[in-house]
């Protein structure tokens, strides 16, 4: 193994919160407590669909959210979303042509627009410039005018957005990110060194050496917070790329399936960063490739959490440990599952 070569800004020394091995710090009960706090945060009924620029003006794109089939499209640049079933005889509107900003039903040509028709009505949407959101008003949840948005860096930025499905609940996605201790062990291709340097009720901060290329690593302090029950954000607090964020959103598709939508919004005060702007499209692909690589591992982690919670037969000793340690994660996820399957 080649020795690590640190590049970029040097960070001042900082104590770790614990010298215990990672597996001992990754206490399921501790993660479950953090998860419970995260899941208690309101969402305002908002769900991330995908990168906003992946929804176009020519055809309606289909989405599944909370078991409901939806379509999203754009009219004069503005984002629209509505149920995916035509109010006439129920044809699917996924992939329907958009003409003059209206959906044209593929079966009999009914044109559907912002005024709606019968029970078919457009849904509230929000376009934050990076991500497209839709609001579904759920019983027991207070709706808000806008989604909870974490603070993002001002331009110049380089942006990448990935979306992938996993067989798990949204709570499993948040739980994965609330366990930084797996980073070096499970993603050795991306992280060379990682230790927790600060932890409180509302955040956890790690000092992480991120692999740029082979033995070349960049060390930063990265803070994880959960602004809403379906989002966890990593912000680079100190070091190269200070102010950059990675927002991980978990959108429930249907029971047992979740879409992970992750936006990386990178910034830097280095003068050369501005010069990279003409290469935005190329660099976007690079950013997304790195994120996709991590989520190959992490989707497996989330699916394993879901499996352990729902399917694995337990011995009596495991059941007792599970009740002590995993109870919070299980309960949180079960609660999440109940909420998602409640009738609209
Ligand atoms: S089913 Fe859509 S117009 Fe008839
Ligand atoms: Fe991970």
The biggest sheet, with number of strands, parallel, antiparallel or mixed sense and barrel status, is:
8 strands, mixed
Anisotropy-based shape: globular
Name the CATH class of the largest domain.
Answer: Alpha Beta
The radius of gyration is 22 Å
Query: How confident is the prediction overall: mean pLDDT?
Result: 90
Number of domains in the coordinates? 2
Summarize it.
The chain is of the alpha+beta class and 344 residues long.
What's the SSE blueprint?
Blueprint: E1 5-7, H1 22-25, H2 28-39, E2 46-51, E3 61-65, E4 68-75, E5 78-83, E6 97-99, E7 102-104, E8 111-112, E9 125-127, E10 131-135, E11 158-166, H3 170-177, H4 183-186, E12 191-200, E13 203-213, E14 216-228, E15 231-239, E16 245-254, E17 257-266, H5 271-275, H6 280-310, H7 316-325, H8 327-341
Parallel strand pairs: 1-14
Antiparallel strand pairs: 2-10, 3-4, 4-5, 6-7, 7-8, 9-10, 11-17, 12-13, 13-14, 14-15, 15-16, 16-17
Helix pairs in contact: 2-8, 3-6, 3-8
The structure holds FE2/S2 (inorganic) cluster and fe (ii) ion.
The site of fe (ii) ion has 8 residues, from helix 4 and helix 6.
